[in-house]
Amino acid sequence: MLENTHQEAKTILQVRSVCVLHLLSHKMVQSFRIVREEETTLMVEKIRGSSVVNLSDMLVSLTNSVISRVTLGRNYWEGEASNEIMYVNQENEKANEFSSSDFEQKSKKTKSSVSLKGGWKLKEMIGRLAELLGVVDIGVYIPWLSWLNRINGLDGKAEKLAREFDEFIEAVVAEHVHGRRRECNKALRFNMTIWSLGSFLQDMFGAGTDTTFTLLEWTVAELLKHQETMKKLQKEVKEIGRGKRYIAEDDLEKMHYLKAVIKECLRLHTPLPILLPRESLKDVRVMGYDIDAGTQVLVNVRAIARDPSSWEHPEEFRPERFLNSSIDFKGKDFEFIPFGAGRRGCPGTLFAINVTELALANIVYKFDLSLPDGASSEDLDMSEGTGITIHRKNPLIVLAAERL
Ligand code: HEM
């Protein structure tokens, strides 16, 4: 039994490192560009088709669709495939053939009609996963109280969800094995059980979608509140977009203000306020406090990002602070580590930033946003929800007028 557990743990690490290599390396993230561009285009079209828009829903759907397509090969999130990609090299080369100028046209052509029979409950399962992640697992902090998780149903809910994930993954794998994707499985030649694959996917969806959508949601909310910043951003994006139908990834490099806006939002609304727990390896003394070896250390990056000894007017949204500054989120500037730092730092940073920049640029390029019922932007509720990821408490509902 113990040996099995060790084997599974080893396999998860193996799956994680293979997947980080296959999904999150610089080269792979670049190769998923077509997926990001297509899904962003689809989102823009959906916004265009609605009068009052639940932007939070749109952003959840965007981030999950992108992750679904790159991890599972098609869009199981929307219940029907908007397109498919395979993560074998040959196919990625194909994806790279898309140039920014023709992606709009090709995305239309490649919009596939493949629909998923039965429709998977991925959306519903991810919703429950997010809910579970937001609940404090009391047993982790006070081991003798872990029995509470049986009483409050946390264990049962987690086990049920894990079983449903397994069934889902089994069906996806079966589809790959029996369908046209036989090739893909060559990439995954190690001894991977359904359980470890399911657990990896829960990690990818849990760590990758909620955080990215939260960042986008807060960024748009701050822009609504700060109309001058919104105008300045729209001006930059318009100048660089030069009348093209959609902003493509090639355009983003020059958008310095856009990057500053996103950084400022990562600072003020750090999606994951507490890093993964660390443990001190030896007895140390930090700022006069003695910390024994084996002590669990929780780093509050949100507090660090709002520390008045590092930031002027830390509670205010001021993207300009990043314009002529070398401070970045790559884990070297410790006053600003929204993606963590060191060996456990977020492996999905580039993935997240690419999705966020492209989506934000297209939203502000295509639409003028306002609040429904003539509400002024000062009325926008900025309350925070609870949970591991700090979402907005209430969804972001906007009117989106197309920019001409
Ligand atoms: C704005 C978006 C995101 C933010 C703010 C964020 C932030 C973080 C943070 C703070 C950690 C813990 C790092 C530490 O303790 O040092 C983490 C871990 C992780 N992130 Fe992200 N993340 C984001 C997006 C993503 C995406 C898009 C993916 C994958 C597609 C991803 C995958 C992961 C994984 C797998 C881990 C766990 C790494 C481990 O177990 O060592 N993240 N993330």
TrEMBL record:
Pfam families: p450 (PF00067). The keyword Membrane does not apply. GO terms for molecular function: heme binding; iron ion binding; monooxygenase activity; oxidoreductase activity, acting on paired donors, with incorporation or reduction of molecular oxygen. Keywords: Heme, Iron, Metal-binding, Monooxygenase, Oxidoreductase. InterPro entries: Cyt_P450 (IPR001128), Cyt_P450_CS (IPR017972), Cyt_P450_E_grp-I (IPR002401), Cyt_P450_sf (IPR036396). It comes from the Eukaryota. Its cofactor is heme. Belongs to the cytochrome P450 family. This is Cytochrome P450.
